Amino acid sequence: MPTTRTRRQRTTLSAYLVAALAMMASLFIAPAAHAEDREGTIDATAITREWDKAVKYNGTPSMSGLLCKGTSGLSGMGCYKSNGDIWYLFDGKADGMSVAVEWFDYNDSTSGDSSKLYRYGVCINSSGAPSWASCNKNYYEHHTLAFRMCYYDDGKRVESTCSFWGENMKP
């Protein structure tokens, strides 16, 4: 028969286990919900989406110092180079679609609130596969970036190919 101390230890352990599972679940569930309709909260009269066609890049960029994320299925990849604010996009699948990075630039310089959207856009590699292409942007150093990779078909996002959002990246 368990002692009172043993029952208390089991109860405490169970509580910790439930809390840990809830935190782990939030890591997997929260990003998808967060990314579900990021553009749906934008006041279109205040901010216009930037749309950039990436310039074909000869060869393969140096991966040193790049932050990279793949599309679902990993046939496309996007990498961000903070020194120069350059996006490198790789399209590795000859399927008629284009790989793209969707990015959001948040201004947290004055209030520390990283939820104030400053600008947002898409950089798309329509150079065919396999190919690397790049977009040269100019972000403020004190802003926060969020991004994800997707495939686009005829200028429209194919949601099932999108990665989760990468958060809290500083240019």
Question: How would you describe this protein?
Answer:
Helix content is 19%, strand content 39%. It is built from one helix and eleven strands. It has one helix at residues 4-35, and strands spanning 50-53, 55-57, 67-70, 76-81, 86-91, 98-107, 117-125, 131-136, 143-153, 156-158, 166-169. The chain is globular and about 45 Å long. Mean pLDDT is 76; it is low at 6-37. Strand 9 (143-153) and strand 10 form a beta hairpin. With 171 residues, it is of the alpha+beta class. The strands form two sheets. Strands 1, 6, 7, 9, 10 and 11 form a six-stranded mixed sheet that branches. 24% of the residues are buried.
Topology:
Elements: H1 4-35, E1 50-53, E2 55-57, E3 67-70, E4 76-81, E5 86-91, E6 98-107, E7 117-125, E8 131-136, E9 143-153, E10 156-158, E11 166-169
Parallel strand pairs: 1-7
Antiparallel strand pairs: 2-8, 3-4, 4-5, 5-8, 6-7, 6-9, 9-10, 9-11
Shape verdict? globular
The helix/strand series, from N terminus to C terminus, equals: HEEEEEEEEEEE
Structural class: alpha+beta
Distance between the termini: 60 Å
Oligomer: single chain
What is the total tally of β strands? 11
Largest sheet entry:
6 strands, mixed
What is the helix tally?
1
Low-confidence stretches: 6-37
What level of helicity do the residues show? Answer: 10-25%
Sheet-strand content, in percent, reads 35-45%
Mean pLDDT: 76
Radius of gyration: 20 Å
Give a nutshell description of this structure.
The chain is 19% helix and 39% strand. It contains one helix and eleven strands, in the order αβββββββββββ. The model is unreliable at 6-37 (pLDDT under 50).
